[in-house]
Structures are given as structure tokens and as C-alpha cells.
Write a structure and sequence with these properties.
Number of helices of chain A: 5
Oligomer: heterodimer
CATH class of the largest domain in chain B: Mainly Alpha
Distance between the termini of chain A: 53 Å
CATH topology of the largest domain in chain B: Rna Polymerase Sigma Factor, Chain: A
Helix content of chain A: 25-40%
CATH architecture of the largest domain in chain B: Orthogonal Bundle
Number of domains of chain B: 2
Helix content of chain B: over 70%
Largest sheet of chain A: 9 strands, antiparallel
Radius of gyration of chain B: 17 Å
Strand content of chain A: 25-35%
Shape of chain A: elongated
Strand content of chain B: under 5%
Structural class of chain A: alpha+beta
Shape of chain B: globular
Number of helices of chain B: 9
Distance between the termini of chain B: 29 Å
Order of helices and strands of chain A: HHHHHEEEEEEEEE
Largest interface: A-B, 36 and 56 residues
Order of helices and strands of chain B: HHHHHHHHH
Radius of gyration of chain A: 23 Å
Largest sheet of chain B: none
Number of strands of chain B: 0
């Protein structure tokens, strides 16, 4: 190991030089230093993490996986133009969508929608339409039936956030609308909950997911 | 803490996507990693976020672990330390509240119990650090425990960045020489 180069590796391990742009060989040299310096962490006393931390971690891993799957699905969906998208949903029995202003809009402004669909069979359960001008999203409930004794709850996960926020129970009235702040990259979900909504404030059994994507 | 070889096995099983092993690994090592995050972040909420980042990394990158290069305990501790430093820097408080001297004490007063608990590397490292000039050692430890960059250190020591670089490197050369003796 060359002197100067190895000192650079030591400094990257310490963090006094940035790690970006390392070659595989440089990375190895830095990691060797990191493992050597890790002895400095051995006297640190263990502290029991809070209850429920492991559940938060697995929830996040599941969420990351959903996100990766969504990205793949969205890459396919993006090849569809507005009418094709509408046609696909109409074919799924969602003719009510013809009244969606976002999809009828003929202006050149980019349009953003999230189609929140069933993880099991892809049936759309809710559409979220996002207005770039106002920064507001509008939820359009479609047709989701909760199992006996359950309610369906709507969730919003803003881009970069780790915990979803409830946006209320799924309305019985299909013409009802709810508006709130949102942005591209946000994720929406529907979950099955005990009657009255999630007791924990977090989704219990999420069954539908969708991400806001641009529809050109 | 769990034995080294047990941690190695659990981490290798995690790399094979064994969820039960991942859970056991969490049970065994999360207190240690949370301790590291708390010590570095000095903020409970931040340390909790870091712990989530760490185990997300562990699940996604466990296949990078190579037991020929080091033990699982050290590999995991490095992730916890690096993630904690990342979090501090994101918050723009990389060196606020530093310089309490606790980091120097930590290195200067090793816990003898550690020597019998796989702490030989620690004692060797502390011994080598103690041979450095006080200022050079402080630089290394502040960078290590607080994530201070050359620029941060230059401000803390009211010294030009190039001088900091020289001192840091002098410290690291001595450290390396001592460790390879």
C-alpha cells in the first residue's frame, strides 16, 4: 500500500476527505481503515432501542420494496398516453373516470396522477390527481369494498418521508373529494383497518398502492 | 454482546435473505448500534432514524460482508458510525457541541473488561493513539466521533486547512506505523 494513497484512504475512513468517486481498490483500502478504527467504538455502552423499532424497520423495507416494484410498473405505465391510461381503467370498469379533468385536459401542461391499485390484481381503487399550479392533490375514490367488519383507510406518504399520514377513511360517497398538499414522487395507499380506522395511526394491512407519476 | 462467530453466522444468513436470522441479528446487535448512534448523534430521535437506516443498509448490503476481512461486529459498528456521521452532517451540526473532551477520555481510559471481551484491538489502538501528540490525537478523535471535516477542524483549532491536513496526516502515519509493529 502506497503511503500517500493509503493516507487518503485513512482520511476517507475518518471522513475528513469525501468518499465519492472511489475506485473499487480505493474503497477496499478505506474499508480496511474503517474496520481497524472500529475498535474505537467498542467501549460505547449498549442502549436498548425503543419497542417497535424492528417493526418500523421491516415496514420500511417492505415500503422500499413496494417502491421498487412501483417504479418498474410505472416505467411500463408511462408508455401509455392519457387516453390509453383512461381506456385501461375504463376496461376495468372505471368509466366514471371519463369525468376526470386531468385526463381530459388538452393543454400542454404536464399532468400528474397516481392510480392506487390493488397489489393483488391491479384493480384501481382510488385516483389521486395532482395540480402542479396549486400544489394540491385531489383524491377520487373508485370502488373498494372492505371485508366484513373492516374499514378502508387512505394514506399519503410524501416523498422522502418514512411514515405515512392518514388522509381519512375511504368515503362511501363516490362523488366526495378531499384536497391536500402533495407532490410528484409521493405514494398513496389503501389499507384494511378495524372499523373506525387504524388504532396505531399507521396502516395495519395495506392492500393498494400508487405513486404520483407524470402522464405526458 | 453476542459472540463474534454467532454474529458472523447471523449476518451471513441475512445476506441469504433469511428473515429469522435478520431478526436475531437485530436482537443481538441493535443495543450496541443504538448506543453508537446515540453517542455520536447526541439526540434520541436522530439516533432512532439512524438505527433504521443502519438496519435497512444491513438488509440490503449484507452480501458485502466478508468475514476474511473483519468481524461482523466491527462491520456493523462501522455502518452505525458512518450513518450517524451522515445524519449529523445533514443536520449541519457536525461539530456543534463537540469538544467536551469525552472522546479523548474515552480513548485515554480504556475499560479493562474489554481486553477479555475481544477488546485487544481496542487496547492496541488506544495505546497507539496515546503515543500521538495530543493535538494530532484530538484531530483524529474529533473527526472520528464527531465527523468534523478538515474545514470544521480548521475552524475549531483556528488554524489554516493545510496545517490541519499536515497534522492529521502526521497523526495517521504514526498510527499506521504503530499498528503495524
Amino acid at each position: 500500500m502506497g503511503g500517500e494513497r493509503n493516507l487518503d484512504a485513512a482520511e476517507r475512513a475518518l471522513g475528513t476527505l469525501p468518499k465519492t468517486g472511489e475506485s473499487p481498490r480505493q474503497r477496499r483500502a478505506r474499508e480496511d481503515w474503517e474496520l481497524r478504527l472500529a475498535a474505537l467504538l467498542s467501549p460505547i455502552e449498549p442502549v436498548t432501542p425503543p419497542e417497535g423499532m424492528f417493526a418500523r424497520i421491516t415496514q420500511r423495507l417492505a415500503h422500499d420494496e413496494t417502491r421498487r416494484n412501483l417504479r418498474k410498473a410505472n416505467a411500463r405505465a408511462r408508455r401509455w398516453q392519457g387516453f390509453a391510461l383512461l381506456g385501461g381503467m375504463a376496461a376495468a370498469g372505471m368509466a366514471a373516470l371519463a369525468f376526470l379533468p386531468a385526463l381530459r385536459d388538452t393543454s400542454d401542461a404536464p399532468r400528474y396522477v397516481a392510480v392506487v391499485s390493488s397489489d393483488a390484481d391491479g384493480t384501481p381503487g382510488m385516483v389521486v390527481e395532482f395540480d402542479t399550479g396549486s400544489g394540491l392533490a385531489t383524491v377520487i375514490p373508485l370502488n373498494v369494498r372492505a371485508p366484513e367488519g373492516k374499514d378502508v383507510q387512505m394514506w399519503h406518504l410524501p416523498e422522502g418521508a418514512t411514515r405515512p399520514i392518514s388522509i381519512g377513511l375511504f368515503p362511501d360517497d363516490p362523488t366526495s373529494r378531499a384536497s391536500f398538499r402533495a407532490g410528484p414522487g409521493d405514494i398513496f395507499a389503501l389499507s384494511y383497518e378495524e372499523e373506525g380506522g387504524s388504532p396505531t395511526g399507521q396502516p395495519t394491512d395495506a392492500r393498494y398502492h400508487g405513486e404520483i407519476v407524470r402522464v405526458d | 454482546m453476542a459472540s463474534d462467530s454467532e454474529l458472523d453466522e447471523l449476518l451471513l444468513a441475512t445476506a441469504r435473505r433469511d428473515r429469522a436470522a435478520f431478526r436475531l441479528l437485530y436482537d443481538r446487535i441493535s443495543p450496541k448500534l443504538f448506543g453508537i448512534a446515540l453517542k455520536i448523534c447526541r439526540n434520541r430521535a436522530m439516533a432512532e432514524d439512524v438505527l433504521q437506516d443502519v438496519f435497512t443498509d444491513v438488509w440490503n448490503r449484507a452480501d458485502n460482508f466478508d468475514r476474511r476481512r473483519g468481524q461482523a461486529g466491527a462491520w456493523l459498528a462501522v455502518i452505525a458510525r458512518n450513518r450517524s456521521i451522515d445524519a449529523l452532517r445533514r443536520q449541519g451540526r457536525g461539530f456543534l457541541g463537540a469538544a467536551t473532551g469525552s472522546e479523548a477520555e474515552m480513548a485515554a481510559a480504556p475499560d479493562p473488561a474489554l481486553a477479555s471481551d475481544g477488546g485487544v484491538e481496542y487496547l492496541t489502538l488506544v495505546d497507539c493513539l496515546n503515543r500521538l501528540e495530543t493535538r494530532d490525537r484530538d484531530l483524529v478523535l474529533r473527526a472520528y466521533y464527531h465527523g468534523e471535516t478538515r474545514e470544521d477542524l480548521a475552524r475549531s483549532f483556528n488554524t489554516p486547512v493545510n496545517t490541519i491536513k499536515t497534522w492529521l496526516r502526521r497523526g495517521l502515519i504514526s498510527l499506521k506505523t504503530c499498528l503495524s509493529e
